[in-house]
Amino acid sequence: MYNKYHMKKVINWALVGTKGTVNHFLAGLRAAGGHAMAVVSRAQDRAHHFAGRNGIEKAFGNFDQMLEDPEIDVVYIGTPHITHKDLTIRALKAKKAVLCEKPMAINAWETREMIEAAGENNTFLMEAMWTRFRPAMYKVRNWLSKGLIGKVKMVQANFGFRAPIEPDHRLFKLELGGGALLDVGIYPISFASMVFGGQKPHDIKSHIVIGKTGVDEEAAAIISYGGSRLACASTAIRTKMVNDAWIYGDSGKIYIPSFVQALGAELLQDGKKKSRFDQEDVSNGFNFEAAEVMDCIRKGLSESPIMPLDESLVVMETMDAIRAQNNFWYPSETRPG
Prior knowledge:
The chain has 337 residues and is an alpha/beta fold.
């Protein structure tokens, strides 16, 4: 099948959003050799300001107008979680490849619709789980594939920080899908999923702490992947945590300090350090996921083999199960039953 991107040296991106992660992604994209051609915001003046400040040639105050631009190849969606489904599906129907910021959506139903839209339009879609593409994570997967720690028995991963309560900030707004689980809890859950090969959990036990603004401020889960395989994942937006990850096997273990940034990893056997990997500091880390997207679309792939769509759905189903156990819902959702 003809792939129009196969010989294209420069891939043109449109950035949707002007705040937070979009700024980090822009730096990484440029380091990866991608071209930020356009920015989109609901407010035209914000789009113009962002474009002018960052040397971007096109600014749109209307998402659909951007989709009509034939020069745009890929859309990066960096807006709040509750907007992901609608924007992604519209972009896919316009035959634009999409990199959607994590989490893919606010629940598995929305995620499933997005994946179906990608299939129906034969268009690339990937969740922006940037941690998974860092060189240290490639090394961790290599160690696991070689069986260097034996059979994996347990994963432990934490990601939490103490943010000041700001009721108007998206992190503390329930109607925007705020809270710990979707925003930061997805990191340890997706990490565990990666280690256990993207398999669906057999059982989940969890607890969520709801804060003053109605969002989950802390959450913890024990996830069984069958047999003796367990993951312990915890997260917080009001508690500063040690944000490390451990993978325990029956003949060794792997340690990833500050695993979300994943600048290095250690392999230990018999209590002794056997190997250490340290990444050279290249850009800000977002360059690796941007490079993956561009490599995939040049190859004519509809999804990334490193962050496959079925696994993004499994991770979202896992978070849905945790919320259901704790009767925690977002206003835009229809509660089951």
